[in-house]
């Protein structure tokens, strides 16, 4: 059964398709919207977590998918576009998919160059937020606070340091983890949705996929965490569960 929002998207953009085909497309668009989550300032305390969808991007996605149904499977590209649009307040409805993708690429490159010339101090390491130490004894998985995100984005060359991600962490909507080396420098940034306990995204530097070395570390932690005996951090225990680990390796 479709929600009211999904019924609106179906009737507005996909009324000419067979109902079952339209439903499948709308559900994919809704999944992308849910993965984006709430974008904005403070979330009202009386809002249910399932209603934190204050954005218009699934409507724009539906408009573009109507032109080319293959766009619905371009999840990574759509997330990069939304990151750009939400941080810059771009009028995305004036752009098609290709124009928006090029605009986000230009913006992310500009941010990467800007971050390269910044000289941010490395934040002091908080041992209590080390979730896991990898078998090489040098790298570890680290839970980030909002004030850590600027440095993370600066070193990694992506937009995790922007306001939308800070708001997600402050509103307890997302957890942000970082795979770091012995010098406390990040190499992979991971976003986890608090409500579903699923990984929304994981990126290496400049929004590239993590290199195999760090994917192996990610898998090492996933295997470890199927047995929660080793996890002591209460803040993380509130949010992580077996379904998050086993569904997102």
Radius of gyration based on Cα positions: 19 Å
Shape category: globular
| SS field, number of helical segments | 10
Using the coordinates shown, work out and report the CATH topology of the largest domain.
Aminopeptidase
Strand order of the largest sheet: 1-2-3-4-5
Name its key features:
single chain, 249 residues, alpha+beta, Aminopeptidase, 2 domains, five-stranded antiparallel β-sheet, 5 strands, disordered C terminus
Fold and architecture overview:
The chain is an alpha+beta fold and 249 residues long. The chain folds into 2 domains: 4-116, no CATH class; 127-247, Aminopeptidase, CATH 3.40.630. The chain is built from 10 helices and 5 strands; from the N terminus they run αααααββααβββααα. The protein has helices at residues 4-13, 19-36, 57-67, 75-88, 97-117, 149-156, 163-170, 212-225, 234-237, 242-247, and strands at 130-133, 140-143, 174-180, 186-193, 199-203. Strands 1-2-3-4-5 form a 5-stranded antiparallel beta sheet, with helices on both faces. It is globular, with a radius of gyration of 19 Å. The two termini are 30 Å apart.
Q: How do you describe this structure in short?
A:
The protein has 249 residues and is α+β, with helices and mostly antiparallel strands.
SSE order and pairing:
Layout: H1 4-13, H2 19-36, H3 57-67, H4 75-88, H5 97-117, E1 130-133, E2 140-143, H6 149-156, H7 163-170, E3 174-180, E4 186-193, E5 199-203, H8 212-225, H9 234-237, H10 242-247
Helix pairs in contact: 1-2, 2-3, 4-5, 5-6
């Amino acid at each position: 059964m479709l929600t009211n929002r999904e019924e609106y998207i179906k009737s507005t953009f996909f009324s000419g398709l067979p109902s079952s085909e339209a439903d499948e497309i709308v559900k994919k668009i809704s999944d992308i919207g849910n993965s984006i989550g709430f974008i904005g300032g403070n979330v009202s305390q009386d809002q249910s977590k399932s209603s934190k969808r204050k954005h218009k991007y699934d409507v724009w996605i539906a408009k573009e998918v109507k032109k080319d149904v293959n766009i619905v499977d371009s999840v990574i590209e759509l997330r990069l576009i939304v990151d750009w649009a939400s941080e810059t307040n771009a009028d995305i409805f004036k752009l098609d998919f290709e124009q928006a993708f090029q605009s986000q690429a230009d913006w992310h490159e500009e941010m990467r160059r800007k971050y390269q010339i910044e000289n941010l101090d490395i934040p002091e390491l908080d041992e209590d937020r080390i979730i896991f130490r990898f078998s090489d004894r040098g790298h570890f998985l680290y839970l980030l606070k909002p004030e850590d995100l600027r440095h993370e984005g600066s070193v990694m060359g992506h937009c995790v340091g922007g306001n939308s991600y800070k708001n997600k962490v402050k509103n307890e909507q997302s957890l942000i983890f970082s795979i770091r080396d012995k010098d406390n420098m990040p190499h992979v940034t991971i976003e986890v949705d608090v409500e579903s306990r699923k990984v929304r995204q994981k990126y290496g530097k400049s929004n590239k996929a993590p290199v195999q070395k760090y994917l192996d570390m990610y898998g090492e932690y996933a295997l470890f965490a199927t047995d929660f005996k080793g996890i002591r951090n209460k803040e993380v225990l509130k949010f992580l569960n077996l379904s998050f680990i086993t569904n997102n390796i």
